[in-house]
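#random but structural
TW: two for the price of one
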Amino acid sequence: MPLMKPCKNRCTIMLKKLFAYFQYILPQHLLTKLFARLGQVSTPWVKNNLIHSFVKYYQVDLNEAVIEDVTNYPTFNDFFIRHLKPTCRPINHDDSFVVSPVDGTIAQGGKIRKNQLLQAKGHSFSLEALLAHAKTAALFENGEYETFYLAPRNYHRVHMPFSGKLLSATYIPGRLFSVNKITAEIIPDLYARNERLVMLFETELGPMAIVMVGALIVGGMQTIWMNRPVKYTSIQELLIPTNLVLNKGDELGYFIVGSTVLLLFGPQTIHWDPETPRSIHFGQKIATKIISLH
């Protein structure tokens, strides 16, 4: 009997590694494109069965959705980016608090050690690799970060954690590895490998960055000012509206299928709330500001 547990553990580790490494040979972008097209099918029996199966498997709470009847969604993608009833996510509007930008799980967080962020035990990655811009990365050295994982069952719209003015938006192409816990523990530089959208804001606390990270079968990342999901073959500085100021809780964009959001602040600006639960809703307090720069 004592030998059974070590054997079981070794088998579990081996299966996790096979799952993660198999993604290297998967046609990630092709699979994602095919899934996105399936999600756009409006044929009633196709999209209704897809949504019903998804809701049942992932135990999605449709009582929170503005549209509760799955047959009233034009496509699966429309269901996936569903709006929630405003009363379901009260926003903490205290000016001294930072709130969660998403529904999800806090995967990692804390202090950025010079320019390194913890991905998972044994894996770190650099600010410059994540942001693909040395000057932007320098703004967050020794700063603070939090990583939010959005599971398939979660609400997939992204909101402002703190009020700010949009300074830039950069699309960075990359791979489309899954961003679940298993992959994060095994694939190095995961968030700096995958495609991502980096948005830089000027706030009362100085610079704030929100990074939306793409993943396997994520059909796209879209913001409130874009008319379609962003997708390029090289790094692109996106056109942004002039003087776009978004208040805490305002919608910023959304994912079509689950993924990850990273939130960055500069050094000595916020203090993470130690009582924040790992499973969190958009609008909940996650940090308190330390200083005001203006």
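TW: number two ↓
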Amino acid sequence: MRKAITTFLGLALVAGAFAGPAMAGKTTKGSYQVMAAPLPVLTDVDPNGCLGAVEGVHKVTTPVKAPATGKLSVLLDGFEGDWDLYVLDKNGAVLASSTGDQTSAMAGLGGDPMEEKVVLPVFGKKTLSISACNWAGSPVANVTWKYVVR
């Protein structure tokens, strides 16, 4: 019995070793449009930033599967005003964010470009979430993501 378990574990390790390199360079990508109303911020700002917004009203969160260790790149663009971008783990913890202030760019004061982007390494197979949040912008934005397996 012990020999059978050892043989099974050995075969599983060998299969895993060949599965990783076989997937190396595999690219998965997607794009979609999000619609969200600006977050009404009058005086007190939520310490969680735009993550404290109402899902489906001020932010749109979409799952993305990482099939193996690799790199996720996300771009949020095609908007006017100020949007924020977050990548979250399965528990909702922020792994990466882009929260530039585009409001001064709208006024012609040389603020951040009308985009938010993040690039982050991902270790192992996981489900992540991309959250696009309308802080104070136009109601429509575009999300483009790409995942490359290492």
